[in-house]
Amino acid sequence: MQPPLLLGALAVLLGVVGALDPALEEIWRGWKSFHGKQYPDEAEAFRRAVWEKNLRRIEHHNLEETLGKHGYRLEMNHFGDLTDEEFNQQLNGFLADAPERHGGKAALFHESAARETPKEVDWRAKGYVTPVKNQGHCGSCWAFSATGALEGLVFKKMGKLVSLSEQNLMDCSRRLGNSGCHGGYITRAFQYVRDNGGINSELVYPYLEKDVFSCHYNTQDKAANCTSFLLVPQGNETALEQAVGTVGPVSVAVDANNFAFHFYKSGVFASSQCSNIVNHAMLAVGYGPLEVPKSDSLTLTLSSRSWSEQWGEKGYIRLAKGVDNHCGVANQASYPVW
Ligand SMILES: *[C@@H]1O[C@H](CO)[C@@H](O)[C@H](O)[C@H]1NC(C)=O
Ligand SMILES: *[C@@H]1O[C@H](CO)[C@@H](O)[C@H](O)[C@H]1NC(C)=O
Fold first, then answer.
1. Distance between CA 46 and CA 69 in Å, rounded?
2. DSSP readout, 87-137?
3. How far is 218 from 198, CA to CA, in rounded Å?
4. What residue stretch is flagged as signal peptide (predicted)?
5. How far away, in angstroms, is 196 Cα from ligand 1 center?
6. From the CB of 239, is ligand 2 less than 6 Å away?
7. With a cut of 50, which residues of the chain have pLDDT below it?
8. What's residue 210's pLDDT?
9. What is the set of active-site residues?
């Protein structure tokens, strides 16, 4: 669903269309066909102009990367025809819960002295993580992050990996303040599963990429349990690492409202554009040096969960760790327990 071309955008359009580069025609067509993009005639020139602008910014970044200015590369992907504003509107959708919301009742993660935090961890290699999914044009990242943490929990307890239903969370947790494709809270998704006494699998309650205003949870097909959830102390990266190291995949949120994040392809992400005001829910699945080129880089591996394998390192990003709570990654971390 593309938003209608507004008057403001039209003005921009008139300004930029003249600048379309004929030399890029072939690449543009290839990109459209690869990603199955089709536009009504009146939108084509505007989308092409947006795409060209993104392409130039990506090339500029990568040139700087070869000169050693950045530790990560960008690449054109399926988001190439979106302006920064559209991207932020359509693909982020995490709402940050106020700490008071849980009335001081939500438990905090505490490192237990008995638990040794490993030097590096990759829960994907241990079978805890389902393949990367695709949220489409719907701000449902919060639901994808929550199912990711719940799937890890089920694997840990039952030894089986079951893909869980985001649509179940979207349709049935509105009462708690979640808004389906228009954003939601990870902790309230856990709260729903706890209060509801379960969640269905992806198989029985498939993802529809849209708001459905009725709940179709089927008690017979319960696929996971959740008895409560824990919050990682806000802003504490050390505690986040300990939680990921000793518990399993942990739900997190980051600031993804920046161009470099949208087109991240590979390497260790660290950008001065990243603030710690978080807006995109992800899943932390590991950390460590884990094959970084420079021995002094520490990374946290995050799954976009929902931006498809075409983004980043097959749907994952390695974020610089231990620097400055980069992109606010430790600000809203939580995980379910059972
Ligand atoms: C939920 O927990 C109960 C008791 O621990 C267990 O018997 C049941 O199999 C669990 N259900 C699922 C779907 O994991
Ligand atoms: C962060 O968490 C670690 C381990 O859980 C703890 O030792 C440390 O005191 C915390 N730091 C702050 C500033 O609260």
1. 31
2. HHHHH--B-PPPGGGGTTTSEEP---TTSPPPS-EETTTTT--PPP-B--S
3. 9
4. 1-19
5. 14
6. yes
7. 1-5, 7-8, 11, 14, 103, 295
8. 94
9. 135, 141, 280
Q: Is the CB of 225 under 6 A from ligand 1?
A: yes
C-alpha to C-alpha distances, 153 to 8, 142, 148, 335, 338, nearest whole angstrom: 47, 17, 9, 9, 8
Does the beta carbon of 230 lie inside 6 Å of ligand 1? no
Any long-range contacts for 8-11 (C-beta under 8 Å, 24+ apart)?
A: 9/46
Q: Which pLDDT score, from 0 to 100, does residue 334 have? A: 95
Amino acid at residue number 26: E
Length of the chain measured in residues: 338
Residue bearing tokens 């602008």:
53
Backbone angles phi and psi of 108, in degrees to 5: -100, 145
Neighbouring-strand partners of residue 301: 286, 318
How much is the pLDDT for 322?
A: 82
How much distance in Å is there from the Cα of 225 to the middle of ligand 1? 6
- 331 neighbors 96 (Cβ within 8 angstroms): yes
